[in-house]
Amino acid sequence: MAEAMSPMVERTVPRVLMCAPTFFEVSYVINPWMTHHVHDTTPERSGHQWDALRETVAQHADVVLQPPAESLPDMTFAANAGLVFRNTFVPSRFRFAERRDEEAHDRAWFVRHGFDIVDLPGGVFFEGAGDALFDRGASRRLWMGHGHRSDREAAPALAQMLGVEVLPLQLTDPRFYHLDTCFCPLAGGYTVYFPSAFDEASLGVIETYVSPDKRIAVEEADALAFACNAVNLGKIVILNRASADLRLRLENAGFVVIEVALDEFMKSGGAAKCLTLRLDEL
Ligand SMILES: NC(=O)NCCC[C@H](N)C(=O)O
């Protein structure tokens, strides 16, 4: 029987999925961050950092736990399970074989929790909320990154399947291989992003849709510290690290910045946002 989740019920407290890093390690290389870190993580350190993130998120949201699976070290990056919109779950189709066995676990979890599963057309790669981020301003538009992991073809398909406007953004820097590594929509329509990770046309799209007073462009040092990979829960912004300048800009926009060290996960190319998946996208 489906476990009761009531995903359609209007909630005031955000609901966030996380998956413990029990089996997390760097055992293969599918992005530049992983290159020098094969077998360079410890369960103690990743467990400790993940617990700190879970406890921080739990102060501002209901945390729902997905059981991890053995031999799937990247499953802890819950954002990549798929995309949630209302009661619909669009499962990821991973580009690299190393992550494809996660798909069955994620699908089963979302079926079990009462979501409607809607699949992308065959052969289209799509890495879920790693590459698809809802605007948090007045609009429900979806920003979608492509060029490294997800295919551009996923954008019109998602628009049709979900009935939302989808804005594709071309990613150009292999270090910022998922949209959530270099772009973060915040409450009120503010947007943190690293301009150099996008092609010119995509920067033009961002500048068309996000007014200058809402754009928070970061320097490379912040981008490399995964400052764009932030969890935004209302006024709260949880991230690995922010420079004094970025913190000030976020505070001036009304946000409260909370740093949680996640360097063990950065060895795999992920941080706060990648380790979470919003389940209430209404
Ligand atoms: N950026 C994300 O959304 N997730 C991080 C995924 C890290 C994993 N090692 C990968 O390369 O797929």
TrEMBL record:
| SUPFAM superfamilies given in the database record | Pentein
Keyword annotations for this protein, in alphabetical order, are: Hydrolase
Question: Could you tell me what this protein is called?
Answer: arginine deiminase
Record flagged with keyword Hydrolase: yes
Pathways per UniProt: Amino-acid degradation; L-arginine degradation via ADI pathway; carbamoyl phosphate from L-arginine: step 1/2
User: In which organism is this protein found?
Assistant: Luteibacter rhizovicinus
Name the catalysed reactions. L-arginine + H2O = L-citrulline + NH4(+)
* GO terms, biological process: L-arginine deiminase pathway
Q: What is its EC number?
A: 3.5.3.6
One GO MF term on file is: arginine deiminase activity
Q: Which major enzyme category is it?
A: hydrolase
Q: 4Fe-4S: is it a keyword of this entry?
A: no
